[in-house]
Design goal:
This protein is mainly alpha-helical. It has 2 domains: 7-50 and 127-162, no CATH class; 58-125, no CATH class. It has helices at residues 7-13, 15-28, 31-46, 56-60, 67-76, 81-88, 121-125, 138-144, 149-162, and strands at residues 64-65, 89-91, 97-99. Strands 1-3-2 form a 3-stranded antiparallel β-sheet. α3 (31-46) crosses α9 and α5 crosses α6. The longest helix is centred in the first third of the chain and has 16 residues, at 31-46. Bound molecules: iron/sulfur cluster (2 copies). The site of one iron/sulfur cluster has 12 residues, from α4 and α9.
């Protein structure tokens, strides 16, 4: 597994290759089989990975909470929902609550999340490789390769599973 610090540069080197692989999957992959492959790799690679030693996602994105999640997190922190929202959040155009800053306001120095078990689904699920219908979300998945070292590894293993070999001028480019 590559280190969190090098994933951005390594992903940049593989950018064309990864988008060619995305096109390959769109044409060649069976969507249901692809979901099973992603799920298997997701479980296998995250099983022993310490995300607290990475937290690239928390450093590069805002946290996003639903109103319900915000209310639950406020309660866990012994705050009122209004107090919690005023201190950490603002409403976005989709009606969700974004944290005010990047890195996320809830990221702690030791890599833990202030929200603990109450962290939003979007955080728990990142990089979303255990969710269904990954075939329709391959663009988003490829863009997150530059953030997540586990996803970087997942895509490399998936290339091996499909026997995908990238050539600069191949027809998947
Ligand atoms: S999900 Fe990926 S980017 Fe986020 S902390 Fe874990 S390894 Fe890092
Ligand atoms: S809410 Fe927690 S898990 Fe989600 S981005 Fe912020 S620090 Fe990371």
């Amino acid at each position: 597994m590559i280190s969190p610090n090098e994933v951005k540069a390594r992903a940049q080197q593989k950018k064309n290759e990864n988008y060619a692989f995305r096109t390959f999957l769109k044409v060649q992959a069976d969507p249901e089989k692809l979901d099973r492959q992603f799920l298997k790799l997701h479980k296998e690679l995250f099983r022993n990975y310490d995300c607290n030693a990475c937290r690239n996602c928390c450093k590069q994105f805002r946290g996003t909470l639903s109103g319900e999640e915000a209310a639950q997190c406020a309660e866990n922190l012994d705050m009122s929902p209004d107090e919690f929202k005023a201190k950490y959040l603002h409403l976005n155009k989709e009606g969700m609550y974004d944290t005010n800053h990047v890195p996320c306001d809830f990221l702690q120095e030791d890599g833990s999340c202030l929200l603990g078990d109450c962290k939003p689904d979007d955080c728990t699920d990142f990089p979303f490789t255990a969710r269904p219908d990954r075939w329709s979300s391959l663009l988003g998945i490829m863009s997150n390769v530059a953030v997540c070292p586990v996803l970087f590894e997942m895509i490399e293993r998936l290339k091996n599973e499909y026997g995908f070999v990238y050539h600069r001028n191949n027809r998947w480019y």
